[in-house]
Amino acid sequence: MELSKRVETLTPSSTLAITAKAKELKKQGYDVIGLGAGEPDFNTPDYILEAAKEAMDSGMTKYTPAGGIMELKEAIVRKFKQDNQLSYSTNEIIVTSGAKHALYTLFQVLLNDGDEVIIPAPFWVSYPEQVKLAGGTPVFVSALEENEFKLTPGELKKAVTDRTKAVVINSPSNPTGMMYSKEELEALGKVCLDHNILIISDEIYEKLIYTSDEHVSIASISSEFKENTVVINGVSKSHSMTGWRIGYAAGPEEIIKAMTNLASHSTSNPTSIAQFAALAAYEADESAINEMKKAFAERLDTIYRLITEIPGITCKKPKGAFYVFPNVKEAVKMNGFSNTDEWVKAILEEEKVALVPGSGFGFDDNVRLSYALAMDELVEAAKRIKRFVLNHQ
Ligand code: PLP
C-alpha cells in the first residue's frame, strides 16, 4: 500500500527508539540502566488516583465537551492567575490529550503549506515532525552551548523570513534543562512582535526548577505579548501523570476555537476520567509536587557531579526539567569513535547503559541523560560510563 507523502519522512522518536532497544536487552536478561526516560519515575499521587476512581464510580465515563470539562478549564484559569499572573477566560483554554496533542493541533490550525516555524536547537524531538505533518517547514537555529543553549534575539532575527509564522520557546528545556530569564524572553518576544510571529511557549517543565530562578511565562510580560502567544502546559511532568494524557493550550480565542473544532473531529475529547484526575491535581496544594522536586534536585546534583568527573565530558548545569545534556565530543574522539551515535551504541552494548544521542535533538556533540530514576541506578550508570570512557582511551 502506498502511504501518504505526509508520513514518508516520519521516523520514530529517537528517545522511544533507545528505550525500545534497552527494553529488548533487559528482556534478554541483561542488567540495563535506561537513562532515556522522558517521564518521572514516581507514581501518580494517591489523591489523584482517588479522584479518578470517584469519577468512574459516579458515571463520569461519557463524552465531554471537545475542549474539556468546564471545571477543569476553570481550574486552569486559576492556575494561570496564581502561578503566572495571567488572566485568561475559559474561551481561551483548550484541554487536550497531553501537551503533545495541544502542539499537534496548534500546528494543524496555524500552518499553510510552506509556512515556517523557527525551532531553536537543541529541540524536543516532536516539534519538527509535527510542523512537517501540518505542511510547515521547520527552520532550525542552533543556539550556542556557551549561551546555555539559549536563542538570542539576533539569532532569531536572522532566521526570520516572510514565511515565518511562529517560533517555539521551551523553558525549562528538554533536552538541556536551561531556562530563559524574563529579560531574555522580553527581548525575543519583541522580535516576534516586530515581525508578526506567533510565540509558542512550551512550559511543560515549569514546576520542575531546582534553582532560585523563577519561571516566567513569556505571555505574562505584557498584554501585547499575551495576545501574541499560545502557552502549552499540562500535568504529565508536574504531577507524574504521563499516561493520563492531559495537557492544555491557552491563547487567543480565535486560535483556541479552531483547535477545539479540530479536536471535535479528531479526539472528540480528552479522556473524561483523566480530566477529573487533572482537576484534582490542580485543586490540591503542591506538597506532592514538592516531594518529587526534592528528589529530582538531589539526583541532579549527584549525576552532574559524577558525569563531569569523567574525562572528555563537560556539562552546563541544568536548572530545571529532569535531563542533563553533557558535551561528549572529546570523550567520543578519545575513545576512537567517529560520531556520538556510535559511541552511545557501544556504551549500550558494552556497559548496558542507555543514553539518548544528541543528534535527535539537533546537537551531535551531546547526549541526553534523564535522571528520572532511582539514585543507586544513577550512580551505577555514571560508574559504568566512566569505566567505558577509561577502558577505551
Ligand atoms: N513538550 C516537551 C518539551 C516535552 O518534553 C514533552 C514530553 O516529553 C511534551 C511537551 C509532551 O508532554 P505530554 O506528555 O503532556 O504530551
UniProtKB/TrEMBL annotation:
Protein EC: 2.6.1.-
Example of a GO MF term: transaminase activity
Enzyme class: transferase
Keywords: Aminotransferase, Pyridoxal phosphate, Transferase
Pfam families reported for this sequence: Aminotran_1_2
The keyword Transferase is assigned to this record: yes
Cited InterPro entries: Aminotransferase_I/II_large, AspAT/PAT-like, NHTrfase_class1_PyrdxlP-BS, PyrdxlP-dep_Trfase, PyrdxlP-dep_Trfase_major, PyrdxlP-dep_Trfase_small
CDD domains per the UniProt record, alphabetical: AAT_like
Stretches assigned to the Aminotransferase class I/classII large domain: 31-385
Cofactor: pyridoxal 5'-phosphate
UniProt keyword Zinc, yes or no: no
Family note: Belongs to the class-I pyridoxal-phosphate-dependent aminotransferase family.
Protein name: Aminotransferase
